[in-house]
Amino acid sequence: RKEVEQDPGPFNVPEGATVAFNCTYSNSASQSFFWYRQDCRKEPKLLMSVYSSGNEDGRFTAQLNRASQYISLLIRDSKLSDSATYLCVVNGRNTGNQFYFGTGTSLTVIP
Amino acid sequence: NAGVTQTPKFRVLKTGQSMTLLCAQDMNHEYMYWYRQDPGMGLRLIHYSVGEGTTAKGEVPDGYNVSRLKKQNFLLGLESAAPSQTSVYFCASSYPSAGRETQYFGPGTRLLVL
Questions:
Q1: Which residues of B are less than 8 Å from A44 in CB distance?
Q2: By C-alpha distance, which of A58, A43, A14, A51 is closest to B105?
Q3: CB contact under 8 A, A4 and B42
Q4: Is residue B86 within 8 Å of residue B14, measured between CB atoms?
């Protein structure tokens, strides 16, 4: 079983729409959770960390459900510039230095 | 600041050839990482380093070696390249933060092994 699983999509949504991505992780001992964004043929960049109580950064909201081992990312009022692949990232079981990446969910925002 | 840089950006190798990928960071980060990214697999950790002179194996270390002789540089070596090592290689660095590190990635090296 993969450490981190994501729906690969693609998600094609119109501008202004709200879209949600989900991610599940296999190790209940994982402590740290993140969403990274990766544009086509570019390097990943941190979008936001995910905290236990949930957190918001502008149009982006991240939620963590430890009981279900589930992380979500909600994007409100989608912009064309949100088109990218969104990577779910979880820290490893044995040390905090190993991070496991999901395969990513592709989002295209359509004019 | 240049951030994290990688050399080369693109390389074609023949099976059995060797090469070294160079990663450099100017942010004085303690931690550095090498990942590979393949379609349908996501990024997978090859090796990482928590400080100058130290290295550790990640998820997929076979066929690769690394060295961290200077804090700002992390080298990834392929002694005898195989077609299965065709991939995009990303280097990253971070400050230590008890598992909450923000990783800063380089632009990647695209490697094709024929």
A1: 43, 90, 103, 105
A2: A43
A3: yes
A4: no
Distance CA(B37)–CA(B15), nearest Å, equals 20
Q: Could B100 and A103 be called an inter-chain contact, meaning their C-beta atoms sit closer than 8 Å?
A: no
**Residue B95 near chain A (CB below 8 Å):** no
Out of A91, A96, A104, whose CB is closest to B42?
A104
pLDDT tens figures, B57-98: 999 999 999 999 999 999 999 999 999 999 999 999 998 777
Query: For residue A98, which residues of chain B lie inside 8 Å, CB to CB?
Result: 45, 48, 58-59
Residues B37, B16: contact at Cβ < 8 Å? no
Phi-psi region of B86 (alpha: psi -120 to 50; beta: other; left: phi over 0): beta
Chain A nearest-CA residue for B102: A46
| Amino acid in position A80 | L
So what's the pLDDT on residue B109? 97
* Helix/strand/coil (H/E/C) assignment for every residue in A65-98: ECCCCEEEEEECCCCHHHCEEEEEEEECCCCCCC
pLDDT tens profile A12-36: 999 999 999 999 999 888 888 999 9
> CB distance from B2 to chain A under 8 Å?
no
